[in-house]
Amino acid sequence: MNEQKIHELWGHVHWLTVLDQQGSYTAAAARLGVSKAAMSQRIAELERLAGVALVQRTTRSVRLTEAGQRLADQARPAFDQIAQSVAQVRDLAGAPRGLIRLTAPVALARQQLVPRLAEFLRQHPEVRIELNLSDRLSSLATEGFDLAIRHTAHPPDTHVAWTLCATRSVLVASRAYLRRHGTPRHPSDLVEHNCLHYPRSQDNPAWTLEPRDARLGERVTVQVRGSLAANNSEALRDAALDGLGIALLPDFSAQAALKAGKLVEVLPGWTPVGSFADRLYAIRPYSVHVPLAVSALVNFLREALADGFGDLESAPQNTGHTSRHKT
């Protein structure tokens, strides 16, 4: 095959490696910013020029043939190296620039990241951010993300993780709910309440709380029940704001409502444990070179979130009557 023909194939081979990563023509086309028809045509051209089938098509997905997989595996390191080299050269200009593909959980992104990203983009006008809001744990390398914000206890060992801040969980309710149903004084009182919870794998949801002062007793696990379970902390917060019940939330979801006095902390002497992680991280796949724009965003978020999500102890507390403590 002559050099001209090989030169024409570089783009085709790159598209094949993206198809291998994404697993479908639709996802690969979206990743490359082209139409599905263009994607299919390029792969068909590559197969004709290679003289062998490279892709196995099914009604639901695509898989590479043995020949296609070998070509993609051998070519991918070269394309990765080209991408890193271009990023390094662009960073020589001295100012962060280029596209950052960022993924973050829905509630965290809406409440805490988006309000801060505007300032970052004003500071770095040559940077663009493509933000993916999803509670699904994405494969960063496969889906092409440069950075993920994760609320987790254990960032993956195969990735680089920067701690952004500490977080904690908090029980909250509206004053109206507590006036109607009473305020728990001990975790055991929660069995009398409508507890709005995040659905887990267990059939019988349970909350575990430990005292901030050892004189209050020992760690307590309570089987709770409630009329609403949701896998989004914003939904639980809004239900608590409507007076539906007591919600267990991460502090970043409760912060604004607590400071405004729209919600109050329940059982402030106790800390819920085991429901949500206690650290917020910025995570990216390991690579020798970290693009300047990504480093700038990580440093910006570390500074912006250094104090966490506020001193919840200073938020207004409930002054209503208390539940009867069953001993």
Structure description:
The protein has ten helices and 14 strands. The chain has helices spanning 3-22, 25-32, 36-50, 66-91, 106-123, 140-143, 175-181, 233-241, 251-259, 292-304, and strands at residues 55-57, 62-64, 98-104, 127-133, 147-151, 159-166, 169-173, 195-196, 206-211, 220-223, 246-250, 264-266, 270-273, 279-285. The strands form four sheets. The chain has a five-stranded mixed β-sheet with strand order 4-3-5-14-6, with helices on one face. Strands 8-11-7-12 form a four-stranded mixed β-sheet. Helix 1 (3-22) crosses helix 3 (36-50), helix 1 (3-22) packs across helix 4 (66-91) and helix 2 crosses helix 3. Residues 318-327 have low confidence and may be disordered.
Total number of strands: 14
Q: How much of the polypeptide forms β-strand, as a percent range? A: 15-25%
- The percentage helix is 25-40%
If strands are numbered along the chain, what order do they take across the biggest sheet?
A: 4-3-5-14-6
Secondary-structure-derived class: alpha+beta
Arithmetic mean of pLDDT: 84
C-alpha Rg (nearest Å): 25 Å
- Helix/strand order: HHHEEHEHEHEEEHEEEHEHEEEH
Low-confidence stretches: 318-327
Tell the overall outline: elongated
For the largest beta-sheet, the strand count, sense and barrel status come to: 5 strands, mixed
Number of helices: 10
Ends distance: 84 Å
List keywords for this structure.
4-stranded mixed sheet; disordered C terminus; 14 strands; elongated; alpha+beta; 10 helices; 5-stranded mixed sheet; single chain; 327 residues
